[in-house]
Write a structure and sequence with these properties.
The complex is a heterodimer of chains A (123) and B (846).
Chain A lengths: L1 H14 L2 E5 L8 E6 L2 E8 L4 E6 L1 E2 L4 E2 L5 E5 L2 E5 L6 E3 L16 E6 L2 E6 L2
Antiparallel strand pairs in A: 1-11, 2-3, 3-4, 5-6, 7-8, 8-9, 10-11
Chain B lengths: L4 E5 L3 H12 L6 E5 L21 H4 L4 H6 L2 E4 L4 E5 L4 E4 L4 E3 L2 E4 L3 E3 L12 E3 L3 H12 L3 E5 L3 H12 L3 E5 L12 H13 L3 E3 L4 E6 L5 E5 L4 E4 L1 E4 L3 E3 L2 H5 L10 E3 L10 E3 L4 E3 L2 E2 L3 H16 L13 E5 L2 E7 L9 E7 L4 E7 L6 E7 L5 H9 L34 E3 L4 E2 H9 L5 H8 L9 H14 L16 H10 L5 H8 L8 H13 L6 H4 L4 H4 L10 E3 L10 H13 L3 E4 L5 E6 L4 H10 L12 E6 L13 H12 L8 E6 L13 E6 L2 E6 L11 E7 L1 H18 L6 H7 L3 H9 L7 H13 L4 H6 L2 H4 L16 E5 L2 E5 L15
Parallel strand pairs in B: 1-2, 1-7, 2-3, 7-19, 9-16, 10-11, 10-16, 11-12, 18-20, 32-33, 33-34
Antiparallel strand pairs in B: 4-5, 5-6, 8-17, 13-14, 14-15, 20-21, 22-23, 23-26, 24-25, 25-26, 27-28, 29-31, 30-31, 34-35, 35-36, 37-38
Classes of the chains: A mainly beta (123), B alpha/beta (846).
């Protein structure tokens, strides 16, 4: 009974995931822009750590949709993307700007499911 | 006994500082209530001008309501205290509110002085003090063409900067014979004026405004006492500040002859339990119009209330260093020659526009004062000598002379400073504090800022703080590193050597060979650049994609709105009419903004990601190649027509320029590289202002090296004369490759040459005499590179895999329609879309 319920719940939750593209479509260690529920989402894949990240593509400082075209980097244990416009760094996991903490990007839930990249609104 | 109750009247920077020191002192527990007549809690007035470069009121805020609430601070906004009742120990506000106090702190600040000129109260006449003032100025600016600041002091110049930012034709009117008359001497004021006038701001000195009446061409006309006049649409008064002492005066506190609430060394006024701090307070007949002394008073008053009488306010140093309208200005101590017997050293460079004057005591041992305009590097050293009353070095003139020769800074070593030396006056951080912080584990500037707050206020001390940090680290046996970043413990040159010697071809391989972490925006492009210099792989090979700045990644320069520029190569600037027509047709088809560049080619702006390959396909089909305007690589070879057409040309400069451009095109280097080739010594191609410059003479080519334009223009040095075409090529091959091998990241040839030990002489020994026995190697590396040349755009459009990256969305054919444009002079320009993080989608019609 319980397992059945869990399964059902899982299924419902699964429904909220939207498939964006194949994992292979992403360029390792670089960004990709996706359209998701009327928003521009910047997706990043790090081949060293095998992590994927999804944040808003809008750079609140340069005020343009460009973050998917920024460079990925790391400092200590934080993975970040540096804006291609004025180089401010944004924590890929939390969206927080490392150089101007008053700016925080919206983040999205992202997963790799059967070699597909899937997004949903952050829970 | 119940809690002591403190009332703070005024919530400006100093009032807030006082409250903050109470909050942070865990040994006391007071009830605090603060009043502000403004609608906001304290904000940073020192940074007020940043309001015009996009900072919001929230960005400038020093605190917020929740911080006060969490710490139990009561605050009342928009209500002014109108009466102080010392007998019953209470204050009364405009709204009738009555609050009792045990201790009363007045931090009412100052107000801008508006001279009593008839007509000074009109709608578009403003002052420059609060965020509300700035909002009103902005609003006036929208309906104005011309703006005038009355007052050429420090704040007046800030206000002038604001008008320039608003796009107004800006004038500064000053009563005194020079700008910043308090802080600068005649020479410094004159240079500041010249620099500001070069920016297009008009300066009028020795002008007294007698009235403001309706204008003929603008809104207002200002009539001056000497009979002349000036028309303007907006006026800002910035004629100094006056202490806000009205409340204190009407309540019977002792006030100075020229205003200001009289205080003693503990910031106590003439009435017991009443303190005054900041710009409203008069200490020793002096008002301190800077924030640092105000902060000191706040600390002293807080300590005294607590019963600690050991702290005292005993005056403050009024030295300042700031950037006004982009001009660096600093003033230390007494600069008007009022000290008996004082003598001075003056350095005045009219070419570079630098003025420095150092005034020393009669015996030549101590600093009395200094004025620095245009180059304020010496500020830190001179200020420390003055504040700590230290003896000057034997020949004090070295302190203001420019660095020459060995490039060794001639300032004062930080080691010589005593531990009590104040490094950061905003947060009162001494050298001793920094030493302690370093000993406790701070090894970087960011750690130091976190732990001591040094250099987080006005930031003026950051260079000095870094020097103290480095010197302390060195003293403790730490190695001060020249590492490129946290991921590689090597300099660019060392990384280049590793890559060359170990034949490393990818970033990942280099990272596992000698790095750590994942890399960053510093090391990735630098390594990509080195890899491209040595192996000349296509920059969009998958292994390299994640390494490049977006410019290299999408083979175009990203513009402010995220679109790209398209720049086809036009070697030597020579182009056929048919070629021009193709460019014109493409620009028209894609509505690209078109401009002829200084490098004799055509820039096309506004191309979106998905348009780039379509545009480049057309260009490549018409025979064009990429111009590498996006890369740290060869840009243009500027040329005149030389002997082909010109009556004076002695050699075929255009033909040679085209050969050179085709030889080195695509070659990646630590920074961009430009050439110039002139067909005779008239030098129409301005070759001496380029990295490599060639000038034809009757006997061959003169080769110049190390020139550049930009922020710090430099003429190239003559490397060799009367060279044949072949010898020019050989020497350029060798110099270019030697530069690529050894220069730092983003180091232009000029800076590389200046830092090369032995300079141009040494370079000749390496290149001409082959002293290091590497000439053959350099040449073969260059030959290999030239052999591997490819037009990156041609390769890209021929490869479906690489083309995949040129669409805005991975999962849609839609384009980015958040972009907005306006039309000016019949062409398209980007505009910012305020709501651009909420976007809609438009499918591209198939």
């Amino acid at each position: 009974m319980t397992t059945q319920l869990t399964k059902q719940l899982d299924k419902q939750l699964d429904k909220q995931w939207t498939t964006i593209c194949q994992l292979d479509d992403l360029t390792p260690n670089a960004g990709t822009c996706a359209q998701f529920k009327n928003q521009q989402v910047a997706i990043f894949m790090c081949s060293h750590t095998e992590q994927v990240y999804a944040v808003s593509n809008f750079d609140p400082i340069g005020e343009a949709h460009v973050l998917s075209r920024g460079l990925m980097g790391s400092t200590e244990d934080i993975s970040y993307v540096a804006s291609p416009l004025y180089k401010q760094r944004f924590n890929l996991a939390t969206g927080e700007c490392l150089d101007a903490p008053e700016h925080v990007l919206k983040t999205f839930d992202i997963r790799v499911e059967k070699s597909q990249i899937q997004l949903k609104e952050a829970s | 006994m119940s809690k002591q109750r403190i009332v703070v009247v005024g919530n400006g920077m100093v009032g807030h500082k006082f409250i903050d020191s109470i909050i942070n002192d865990e040994s006391v527990d007071y009830e605090v209530i603060t009043f502000s007549e403004e609608s906001r809690l304290a904000y940073d007035r020192v940074q007020l001008s940043y309001f015009f470069s996009g900072k919001s009121a929230a960005d400038l805020a020093l605190t917020d309501e929740s911080y006060y609430q969490e710490n139990g601070i009561n605050f009342v906004l928009n209500d002014k205290v109108v009466e102080l009742d010392f007998v019953n120990k209470q204050v009364i506000t405009a709204s009738g509110r009555i609050e009792a106090y045990d201790k009363l702190v007045l931090a009412t600040g100052s107000f801008p002085f508006v001279p009593p000129i008839p007509g000074n109260d009109q709608e578009h006449c403003h002052v420059y003090r609060t965020i509300d003032d700035l909002e009103a100025i902005t609003e006036s600016g929208e309906s104005s063409k011309v703006g005038v600041v009355i007052g050429g002091g420090l704040l007046g110049l800030e206000a002038g900067n604001a008008l320039v930012n608003l796009g107004l034709d800006t004038h500064i009117v000053e009563f005194a014979p020079r700008l910043m008359a308090v802080q600068l001497d005649e020479g410094g004021g004159a240079l500041l004026r010249r620099k500001i006038e070069d920016l297009g701001v008009k300066v009028h000195t020795e002008k007294a405004t007698s009235e403001i009446v309706a204008g003929e061409f603008c809104r207002y006309r200002m009539n001056f006492a000497d009979g002349s006049f000036l028309e303007t649409d907006t006026i800002i008064f910035s004629a100094g500040i006056r202490p806000q002492d009205e409340l204190a005066r009407s309540s019977g506190l002792t006030i100075g002859d020229r205003g200001g609430i009289v205080i003693d060394n503990h910031c106590q006024t003439s009435v017991e339990d009443v303190y005054a701090i900041g710009e409203c307070a008069l200490w020793d007949n002096f008002i301190f119009g800077l924030v640092a002394p105000g902060y000191q008073m706040a600390k002293v008053a807080a300590a005294h209330i607590k019963g600690d009488t050991s702290l005292a306010f005993t005056g403050a140093d009024m030295s300042t260093k700031l950037k006004l309208l982009g001009v660096d200005v600093a003033s230390i101590g007494e600069v008007h020659g009022q000290t008996p017997g004082a003598q001075s050293y003056t350095y005045n460079d009219e070419i570079e526009q630098v003025y420095k004057r150092l005034t020393v005591s009669a015996d030549g041992k101590k600093v009395i004062g200094a004025v620095l305009v245009g180059d304020v590097d010496a500020y830190g050293s001179l200020l420390q000598l003055k504040l700590n009353d230290m003896d000057l070095p034997e020949n004090p003139s070295v302190l203001i002379l420019p660095n020459v020769g060995d490039g060794q800074a001639t300032g004062l070593g930080v080691d010589a400073l005593p531990d009590t030396a104040a490094i950061c006056s905003c947060f009162d951080v001494t050298k001793g504090d920094i030493k302690e912080a370093v000993a406790a584990g701070c090894t970087s500037m960011s750690a130091l800022k976190d732990s001591t707050k040094a250099a987080t206020g006005c930031g003026g001390c950051s260079a000095l703080a870094k020097q103290v940090l480095d010197s302390e680290l060195a003293n403790l046996g730490f190695e001060v590193k020249n590492d490129i970043c946290e991921h590689f413990a090597y300099s660019r040159q060392q990384l280049a050597d590793i890559i060359r010697v170990k034949k490393i071809k990818t970033f990942s391989a280099l990272l596992s060979e000698c790095g750590s972490g994942l890399g960053c925006e510093i090391c990735k492009p630098a390594v990509a650049n080195i890899l491209a210099s040595y192996w000349n792989d296509h920059v969009l090979e998958e292994a390299h994609v994640g390494l490049q700045d977006t410019n290299d990644n999408y083979l175009g320069n990203m513009q402010k709105d995220g679109t790209y520029s398209v720049v086809p190569r036009i070697p030597g600037g020579e182009i056929t009419p048919d070629g021009l027509i193709v460019i014109g047709q493409i620009a028209k088809e894609f509505d690209l903004y078109t401009k002829i560049t200084g490098g004799a080619r055509v820039d096309l702006f506004g191309a979106q990601l998905h348009e780039l390959p379509i545009i480049w396909k057309k260009l490549v089909d018409a025979g064009f190649e990429t111009g590498h305007a996006y890369g740290k690589s060869l840009r243009t070879v500027k040329s005149c027509v030389g002997s082909t057409w010109c009556r004076y040309g002695v050699k075929n400069s255009i033909g040679f320029a085209i050969d050179i451009e085709n030889r080195y095109k695509g070659l990646r280097s630590p920074h961009k590289v430009k050439f110039g080739v002139s067909g005779c010594t008239r030098e129409c191609a301005e070759a001496q202002g380029k990295d490599f410059g060639l000038i034809a003479t009757d006997n061959g080519w003169n080769l110049f090296f190390g020139g550049n334009g930009g922020m710090r223009p430099r003429h190239g040095d003559l490397f060799a004369s009367d060279l044949t075409d072949e010898l020019v090529q050989t020497y350029v091959d060798r110099i270019y490759m030697f530069y690529i091998r050894t220069a730092d990241r983003l180091q232009r040839t000029s800076v590389w040459l200046e830092n090369l030990e032995g300079g141009i002489e040494y370079l000749r020994e390496v290149i001409i005499d082959d002293k290091l026995n590497i000439a053959a190697e350099l040449e073969s590396e260059m030959a290999e590179n030239i052999k591997n040349y490819q037009c990156e755009w041609k390769t890209t459009i021929e490869d479906p895999e690489k083309m995949k990256r040129f669409k805005h969305y991975i999962n849609s054919e839609a384009k980015d329609n958040s972009l907005q444009f306006k039309t000016e002079r019949a062409q398209r320009f980007p505009i910012k879309n305020a709501a651009s993080n909420k976007i809609g989608f438009v499918e591209i019609a198939e």
